[in-house]
Specification:
The chain is of the alpha+beta class. It has two domains: 105 residues, Phosphorylase Kinase, domain 1 (2-Layer Sandwich); 134 residues, D-amino Acid Aminotransferase, Chain A, domain 1, CATH 3.30.470.20. The protein is built from seven helices and 17 strands. The strands form four sheets. Strands 8, 9, 12, 13, 14, 15, 16 and 17 form an eight-stranded antiparallel beta sheet that branches. Helix 1 packs parallel to helix 7. The protein is globular. The two termini are 12 Å apart.
C-alpha cells in the first residue's frame, strides 16, 4: 500500500506548516515539502490522498522547467535522490524524495496574483451580483463557466490562517506592493496564464483560472511557491466542457462532492474519507500530471 504522508518532522530544523506544505528553514534557503494533506472549505481533513504531494511537486517542477527563459523562478533543486538533500534531512530521504524542492528565501509579495480566463467560482458569484469581477466590468449575459473575451487579472489579499482570501481591485493591490511593482507582476501573470493555457488546451486541459505567487530575492521578483497545479488552478477536461453549469475537474472534486453529501457543517474536525473517494482523487491528480506533461507518472 502506498504510504500517505500527512506530516513530516525533521528534528532540529525550524518548520512552519500550511494546509499542504511543510516549510523548513535552512538558513539562506528553504526546503518546501508537499504533504498528502487535503483540505476542503479551509478545513484540513484527517484522511490524506496518496501521491498527492508528489504529483503537485512534479507538476510545479514541470512548469518551472517549461517557463525557463521566459520568467525567473525560485526552483533550485527538485529532490529526486538523497544527495539532493542538505545533511540534516538525508536521514528522512525515503519520505522527502519526489515531494521536496530547495529554494532561496524570498520576501513574499502580499497579494495573490489571480488570473481568470473563464467565469467560475467567486468570480461568477461576484458577476451575478454586480456584473463586475474585482472592479472589472464584464459583458452582460455571460453564463457560469463561460470563456471570457480576454483573461482578466483579479488579485486577492492573502488570508490569515483560517480565513478566506478577499478579492480586491488592482488599485488596492498596488497600494499593498511597494515600488510600483504590481503592474509588472500583473503583466507577467497574464503572460504566463495565456501561454500555459494555450499549451494545456492542446493537451486536452482547460486552465480556467490560476493563482500565482511572487517573491523578491535581492533586486528580482521571482515566481515562487507552486505553479499551475490542480490545487492552485481550476483544470477542466476540454472534452467535457459545457458552459452554463459546474464543470468536471482534475482536482479534489470527489472530496468536495462527498463532504457536501454528508450535511457536514464545514468546520473542524472534518470527516474521514472512504477508500473509493481517496482512490478517485489520486487518479484525478495523476491524470492531470500525465495530460499536461505527456509523461507517465512514476511515484
Amino acid at each position: 500500500m502506498t504510504e500517505v504522508v500527512l506530516q513530516t518532522t525533521i528534528p532540529g530544523l525550524p518548520v512552519r506548516r500550511g494546509k499542504v506544505r511543510d516549510v523548513y528553514d535552512l538558513g539562506d534557503k528553504l526546503a518546501i515539502v508537499a504533504s498528502d494533506r487535503i483540505s476542503v472549505f479551509d478545513v484540513i481533513l484527517p484522511t490524506g490522498i496518496p501521491m498527492k504531494g508528489k504529483v503537485l511537486t512534479r507538476i510545479s517542477a514541470f512548469w518551472f522547467e517549461w517557463l525557463a527563459g521566459r520568467i525567473e523562478h525560485h526552483l533550485e533543486t527538485l529532490v529526486m535522490s538523497a544527495g539532493d538533500l542538505p545533511e540534516p534531512m538525508r536521514g528522512h530521504a525515503d519520505t522527502l524524495i519526489g515531494r521536496t524542492i530547495i529554494v532561496p528565501k524570498a520576501e513574499v509579495v502580499p497579494v495573490e496574483c489571480v488570473v481568470r480566463g473563464y467565469l467560475a467560482g467567486s468570480g461568477w458569484k461576484d458577476y451575478q451580483k454586480t456584473g463586475h469581477v474585482c472592479g472589472i466590468a464584464l459583458p452582460e449575459g455571460l453564463r457560469q463557466c463561460d470563456k471570457l473575451p480576454e483573461p482578466i487579472f483579479t488579485p486577492a489579499t492573502k488570508a490569515e490562517k483560517g480565513e478566506h482570501d478577499e478579492n480586491i481591485d488592482f488599485d488596492r493591490a498596488a497600494k499593498l506592493c511597494p515600488d510600483g511593482v504590481m503592474a509588472t507582476l500583473r503583466d507577467r501573470t497574464l503572460d504566463i496564464y495565456k501561454t500555459a493555457s494555450d499549451y494545456a488546451r492542446d493537451r486536452g486541459v482547460i486552465i480556467a483560472d490560476t493563482k500565482l505567487e511572487w517573491g523578491r530575492v535581492g533586486e528580482k521578483h521571482l515566481l515562487i511557491d507552486e505553479v499551475l497545479t490542480p490545487d492552485s488552478s481550476r483544470f477542466w477536461p476540454a472534452d467535457k466542457y459545457a458552459p452554463g453549469r459546474d464543470q468536471d475537474s482534475f482536482d479534489k472534486q470527489p472530496v468536495r462532492d462527498f463532504t457536501e453529501s454528508l450535511g457536514w457543517n464545514k468546520t473542524a474536525p472534518g470527516p474521514e474519507l472512504p477508500p473509493e473517494v481517496v482512490s478517485r482523487t489520486t487518479e484525478r491528480y495523476i491524470e492531470a500530471y500525465e495530460k499536461l506533461t505527456g509523461r507517465k507518472f512514476q511515484g
